[in-house]
Design a protein that fits this description.
Mean pLDDT: 94
Number of helices: 8
Strand content: 25-35%
Radius of gyration: 22 Å
Order of helices and strands: EHEHHEEEEEEHEHEEEEEHEEEHH
Helix content: 10-25%
Largest sheet: 7 strands, mixed
Structural class: alpha/beta
Number of strands: 17
Low-confidence stretches: none
Shape: elongated
Length: 335
């Protein structure tokens, strides 16, 4: 059960408002709360919204110990936890520590300045509200904005940038675009549940960082002709019943019912820029103090994958969870 929230006076100001309730955001809230800071978390979706939208049967690459936050153990029967187990763990941590999490509240705007911010929210019924806070942490992740394919037909309803469950694709021709973990996992699950799968990837083969128990399985399915693979190739057109792929030797038009574009995601850079946070270089690295994770806007800190800008493959739960300790230490030192 979630703790009952007491009514907040109109002029009440939190010490810290965290935007985003993923593991990094929760870690920031936990460490701030431990330090005696009055803390609130706002989240546009459900608790750990990004993990909730991972494939239903996903297994994490890492061990449960490296997913722990707040010093609370993550017991797990197997060496590597599943998505469902992670959701249960983070839900119980939030409830046990009585974190004030305001789910289904989207941040529309932040104004004010260090020590006196106003965060304007909109809920799922289009109602608006405002919370006040001395400091802000942005921990919004990157899973909401998929990298586009940039080809004609990408707006067709059969194109999906997220994969959840194989059942809807049984007996159909499905093209999976990409060569990393998400593409390989989707392709294998789809094939095992009756889909006819073609993998298309610009690279010469599967990415070297595909999970060690996934890569040989995928390579064997390709070797035996159970999953078709077009490497060194890319989509050039998507039509209602077909797709066109440019291979190293020719253009191919293939029958197709669905396209799963597992091409990655990127942070909401426009939101950061609207706040005045400076993004530097082609990798759009945010300007911040590496010791405190405070951005160039005084009082606004970044946590989780946002710290790496476009380098979304450098910050994971395992290292992003440590950001909360850095930020809490900086906030308490400044009191």
């Amino acid at each position: 059960m979630q703790p009952t929230r007491e009514a907040v006076p109109e002029n009440f100001s939190f010490d810290l408002l965290v935007v985003g309730s993923g593991p990094s955001g929760l870690s920031c809230a936990i460490e701030a709360q431990k330090a005696g800071l009055r803390t609130v978390v706002v989240e546009k979706g459900c608790l750990c919204n990004s993990i909730f939208h991972f494939p239903a049967h996903m297994t994490f690459f890492t061990t449960s110990e490296l997913l722990e936050i707040g010093g609370i153990p993550f017991p797990c029967a197997n060496p590597k936890p599943t998505r469902t187990e992670a959701l249960e763990y983070y839900r119980h941590v939030a409830a046990h520590l009585r974190l004030d999490v305001r789910s289904y509240h989207r941040v529309e705007q932040i104004d004010g300045s260090d020590g006196s911010f106003r965060v304007h929210l909109r809920d799922r019924f289009n109602r608006t509200s405002t919370l006040k806070a001395r400091k802000i942490v942005l921990a919004t992740g990157y899973y909401d904005l998929p990298n586009p394919l940039g080809v004609p037909g990408e707006d067709l309803s059969k194109v999906r940038h997220y994969y959840n469950d194989p059942h809807p694709y049984a007996g159909l021709d499905v093209m999976v675009v990409g060569g990393k973990n998400s593409a390989a996992i989707a392709a294998l699950e789809l094939w095992r549940h009756g889909a006819r799968v073609t993998l298309v990837h610009r690279g010469a083969g599967l990415h070297e960082h595909v999970k060690y128990w996934i890569k040989p399985d995928m390579e064997n399915r390709i070797k035996h002709g159970e999953i078709a693979a077009l490497f060194g190739s890319h989509l050039v057109e998507i039509a209602p019943d077909t797709v066109v792929v440019q291979t190293p030797t020719a253009k191919l038009r293939l029958d197709n019912h669905f396209v799963l574009a597992m091409t990655g995601y990127h942070p909401d850079f426009s939101f950061l820029e609207r706040l005045g946070i400076r993004l530097e270089g082609p990798e759009r690295l945010p300007a911040l103090n590496p010791e405190t994770l405070e951005s160039n806007i005084a009082g606004i800190h970044l946590a989780g994958v946002l710290v790496g800008g476009a380098r979304t493959n450098e910050v994971f739960i395992e290292n992003g969870r440590a950001h909360g300790q850095k930020i809490a230490a900086a906030l308490t030192d400044a009191r």
